[in-house]
């Protein structure tokens, strides 16, 4: 479904990714873990078109998308829930969700009716968002904003969702709630690439995982394999 091959990318003259290669199979949850500054968020941004790779390929459903704009990649079926949530604070919860569906909505009239099915699915998954749908997104709690960011990504009916640090800045009890939601997405067959600071929690939910160090993949395997890898245990699971 998603293949990243020998990817190089960075910011200005600073190259962060130095040959990253990974893949996410249809219907699977793949975790990308590593220390701060290893290149995890840069990987997500390069995949989704927020920054342009300098070398390598990104294939979405077999089609190369590297070098395309973020909006073009979104229309092809990739949704990115970014680090820090990035909701539109002054807009209502529902308007934030509708923005997630922009790629397949009419430009002017009928857009809300066209998105009714997606809205119903998101509200079923996140009843709290339904309760607050007229509320300004900026007034939500951190956990609610994370639900909104995930819901906004789901509104696009994507082939793949990139979920970057969903637990960042959240209280432990809310982190558990967010991971419960990710479990539900997995059960529904949603294809996910997950970057997560809590490596143990990520490995509990993932089908496969990659460990990133200094801009490239250092170790990979199933969660069972990584849980027995002394290098991974010492650095991330100890």
Describe the structure.
With 238 residues, the protein is of the alpha/beta class. Helix content is 38%, strand content 25%. The model has no long low-confidence stretch (mean pLDDT 88). The protein has a single domain (2-237), classed as P-loop containing nucleotide triphosphate hydrolases (Rossmann fold), CATH 3.40.50.300. The longest helix is centred in the C-terminal third of the chain and has 16 residues, at 172-187. The strands form two sheets. Strands 6-7-8-3-9-10 form a six-stranded mixed beta sheet, with helices on both faces.
Tally the beta strands.
10
Helix content: 25-40%
Main sheet record: 6 strands, mixed
CATH architectural type: 3-Layer(aba) Sandwich
CATH superfamily: P-loop containing nucleotide triphosphate hydrolases
Number of helices: 11
Write the layout of secondary structure elements.
Elements lengths: L1 E10 L2 E11 L4 E6 L5 H9 L6 E6 L2 E2 L5 H6 L2 E4 L11 H8 L10 H4 L1 H10 L1 H5 L10 H13 L5 E5 L7 H16 L4 E4 L3 H7 L2 E6 L2 E6 L1 H4 L3 H8 L1
Parallel strand pairs: 3-8, 3-9, 6-7, 7-8
Antiparallel strand pairs: 1-2, 1-4, 4-5, 9-10
Helix pairs in contact: 3-7
